[in-house]
Structures are given as structure tokens and as C-alpha cells.
Specification:
Blueprint: H1 27-38, H2 46-55, H3 64-73, H4 100-116, H5 120-134, H6 140-155, H7 171-175, H8 178-193, H9 196-205, H10 210-213, H11 224-233, H12 237-264, H13 270-284, H14 288-301, H15 309-322, H16 324-329, H17 334-350, H18 358-367, H19 373-383, H20 389-419, H21 427-435
Helix pairs in contact: 2-4, 3-5, 6-8, 11-12, 12-14, 14-17, 15-18, 17-19, 19-20, 20-21
Length: about 450
């Protein structure tokens, strides 16, 4: 092969393409130019300012972290891991804003710009992680600002609550309680903006349940008692109350599934099931009314509603009759019996399959000594709930009429007994009531 060099063009230099030109990294110039735009008094409206920022030559894709550092912390370097406490804070920033309204304007400005430049979302997530990782090095003023900022971002769904889990990755901060202090400050700020229900929903959507919530606590304080004490002492008892309600709801849900299975099992022993419920009541301090509604929903949940109407009626009434001791154990007061009737009324109103069975259900519960005569009469006269009232009162008329008639006859028999021999008093009354049966209520 010939080793003669190939000819080359002399006296000319190839031009570098514009897209291949590498500009030196200069974040300070970016922050200076951004600050000049933000402080320009000629920009009167939010829309004008957003339009100018979006149309400017500022490289937001390259310096997105520094953009948020200026907008959130006034350019002190906290968002990029280079916190400088002595740095002047931009007035038109979240940290430098003089009021809540001014802070809201800053957030609105960032949100509108992010809609035009969606790639800024990645930069936002990155600076949130940096803020959480370095929060323990900030002074009190910046810590409060960061807590308020993160609460706002969470409430507006600009970030996910999963970002908070970065706090649990520093074992030293978790152990000395710093992580818990940061989370507590964020929680307190969020509750100033929204409800505890919304806050706990945000955490749940990020798969932060109670067990994972405990990971923000020092290892020696990971218990429900320590959790409750901490938030009560921090002035947030609503967190404790909501957590208890959620735990109770989960317990009731699991208990309902278990009880429905036991009711459906023909081999289940009523006494054993009753003992189990009483143990759960004592262990978790459950109220009788809660257990009463749980038992009823479990009974109705085990019914095969797709069968023939006559078969469904027989199945429902036999279930109530068999498991009546469970209901009776948890409706020991007149008030609870009235609650039971109204609960059954609401259930029958909501379920068309059970609508015509209400009176028969009440009759069976009366015969099983779950409901007293006085309670049924009170319900009929003035205690029924408004839902479907005319329909259910019409259903109950024959049964209530029988109760009232039996009561009048009982009063007459007692009057006759007063004039009879002492040994025969009450004999006629007892015989009459024993022989007379309540009427079968007609389905409406």
C-alpha cells in the first residue's frame, strides 16, 4: 500500500456546529439575570412575568435547581446543597415574602411557569430531596420556611409524600429525633392549610401507613402510645384521633370478614362466636353500638339474595333467629335497641331485596327478646328515622296493633286478678299471652 499522505485543505478551519458549542457552567450569571427579571418593576401582572421568563434566554433546563433556589429560598444556596446564611434573600421569593398572600403569589408564579416548562418537575423533585437531606443544618428561620414550603407543595400535589421518606435514610437523624422534628413541623404547617383527613389521605396515597409512619420515630418510640403522646404534646390531637378511627375501621373490616364466614358456616357455635366478640370488645374498647352494626352487616352479608323471594325470606329470618343471642348481648339498653331498629330500617331502605322484610325481621327479634315491646311502640309512634318512614310504618301496623291489643288485654286481666284469690292472680294473663301468637306481617 502507498504511504503517500492524503491531500488536505489548507488555510481553512472547520466550523463547530452551534449545538456542539459548550458554554462554561455559570450559575451565578443565571441567578443574576433571573433576579433582574423578578425585580423589574415594569412587570405588572403575573401573566406578563411568566411570559417574559418563558421567552427569555435563561437556560432553565441546565440551571433548574438554581431557579428553585432563587424562588424558594431567595438564592441562599439551600436548594443546591450550598447553604450560605449570610446571603441576601430575594424579596420576591417564598422565604423573603412578607405575608402569606405574597408567598402564595410566588407559588402561583412557579406553577404557571412549570406548566409551560414541564421539565422543571424533575428539578423540583431533586431540590426537595436536597432540602430534606440538609434541613438539620439550617437555622430556625429557614427550617420553618422549608416546612411551610413543603406543606404547600404537598397540598397542591406538586410533589408526592414519598419524598418525605428520604428523612428515614439518615439513621443518625432518626435516632436523635431530628427526623421526627422535621416531619412534625411539616405536619403542623399542612394542618394550617387543610384538614387532617386530606393530610392522611396524601400519606396513604404515598403508601405511608401507620407502620411506615413509625419509621420517622426513634427506635425506642415506635409504639402507638409514643405516637399519640408526641402529637398530643405537639398540639395536634386530631392526628391521634384520626389514626385511632382508621385503626378501628381496619379492625372492624377484618372482624366483619371473619364474622361473616362464621355465620355462613353451619357448624359454628353461637356461644363460641359470642365469646370471641366479647374478647374483642374488651381488648380494643369497642362500643356496643359498633358491634351491633357489625353483627347485623355480617348476618345480611351471608344471605344468598339471588335465590327465590320465599327462600330468601326463610333464610333471613332463620339467620336472625339463630344468631339473635349475639344481637341481644350488645343491645342491653333501650337506646341501643332503638338504634338497632333504625339501623335495620336504613338497611332495608337501601337494599330493595330486604325492603319487604322489615316487619318480619322486627317480629323475629321481638320473639327472641332482642327488642322490647316498649321500644317497638316508641319507634312506631315517634322514634323512626325519616328514610322510607311511610312504607315501614305501614308494614308494622299489624304487628304494632297486636302488641297494643295484647297490652290492653293484659291490663284487663290484671284488673280481674286483683279481685281473684291470691293464689290465682296472674294465671289468666299468663295463659292468654302464652296462647296468643303475634301475626305474620304482610309484605308490602
Amino acid at each position: 500500500m502507498s504511504k503517500t499522505p492524503k491531500p488536505t485543505l489548507g488555510g481553512r478551519k472547520s466550523k463547530t456546529r452551534k449545538r456542539n458549542i459548550v458554554h462554561p457552567y455559570d450559575s451565578s450569571d443565571f441567578k443574576t439575570r433571573l433576579t433582574d427579571i423578578l425585580e423589574n418593576p415594569s412587570e405588572q401582572t403575573m401573566e406578563e412575568l411568566v411570559t417574559r421568563l418563558a421567552a427569555s434566554t435563561l437556560d432553565f433546563r441546565r440551571y433548574g435547581d438554581h431557579f428553585f433556589d432563587v424562588m424558594w429560598t431567595g438564592g441562599c444556596g439551600a436548594c443546591v446543597g450550598k447553604y450560605q446564611p449570610e446571603s441576601p434573600v430575594l424579596a420576591r421569593s417564598f422565604m423573603g415574602a412578607p405575608s402569606i398572600e405574597a408567598r402564595q403569589e410566588v407559588v402561583d408564579l412557579v406553577v404557571q411557569l412549570m406548566r409551560r416548562l414541564p421539565f422543571l418537575q424533575k428539578h423540583l423533585e431533586a431540590i426537595v430531596r436536597t432540602l430534606l437531606e440538609t434541613d438539620h443544618t439550617f437555622d430556625d428561620n429557614l427550617k420553618q420556611c422549608v416546612a411551610s414550603l413543603l406543606a404547600v407543595l404537598l397540598s397542591k400535589k406538586l410533589i408526592s409524600a414519598k419524598s418525605l421518606t428520604v428523612l428515614t435514610q439518615n439513621d443518625v437523624n432518626v435516632g436523635n429525633g431530628t427526623t421526627l422534628q422535621i416531619l412534625t413541623a411539616i405536619t403542623a404547617e399542612y394542618l394550617r392549610l387543610g384538614t387532617v383527613e386530606r393530610y392522611m389521605t396524601v400519606l396513604k396515597e404515598a403508601e405511608i401507613d401507620l407502620a411506615r409512619f413509625f419509621t420517622f420515630f426513634p427506635p425506642s418510640q415506635r409504639s402507638l402510645e409514643a405516637f399519640s403522646k408526641h402529637f398530643e404534646d405537639s398540639g395536634m390531637p386530631e392526628i391521634v384521633e384520626f389514626t385511632r378511627r382508621r385503626q378501628t375501621d381496619e379492625l372492624i373490616g377484618n372482624l366483619r370478614t371473619d364474622l361473616t364466614g362464621r355465620v355462613s358456616d353451619a357448624s359454628s357455635v353461637v356461644e363460641e362466636v359470642l365469646a370471641m366478640l366479647q374478647d374483642k370488645k374488651a381488648e380494643h374498647s369497642l362500643e356496643d353500638g359498633v358491634l351491633m352494626r357489625l353483627i347485623w352487616s355480617s348476618l345480611m352479608g351471608s344471605v344468598q339474595w339471588g335465590a327465590r323471594p320465599q327462600q330468601v325470606q326463610e333464610n333471613v329470618l332463620s339467620l336472625i333467629e339463630r344468631w339473635a343471642p349475639l344481637l341481644k348481648a350488645f343491645v342491653s339498653s333501650v337506646r341501643l335497641q332503638a338504634d338497632l331498629i333504625n339501623h335495620v330500617q336504613a338497611y332495608c331502605y337501601d337494599d330493595p331485596n330486604a325492603l319487604a322484610l322489615f316487619a318480619e325481621m322486627c317480629r323475629v327479634m321481638y320473639e327472641a327478646d332482642v327488642l322490647e315491646e316498649e321500644v317497638i311502640l316508641f319507634w312506631f309512634q315517634q322514634g323512626s328515622c325519616p328514610r322510607g318512614r311511610p312504607v315501614f310504618l305501614k308494614q308494622m301496623e299489624p304487628f304494632v296493633h297486636w302488641l297494643q291489643t295484647a297490652e290492653e288485654e293484659s291490663d284487663d286481666d290484671e284488673s280481674d286478678d286483683d279481685n281473684a284469690a291470691p293464689g290465682k292472680k296472674g294465671a289468666a294473663t299468663a295463659t292468654a299471652k302464652a296462647q296468643e301468637e303475634p301475626p305474620q306481617c304482610k309484605q308490602q
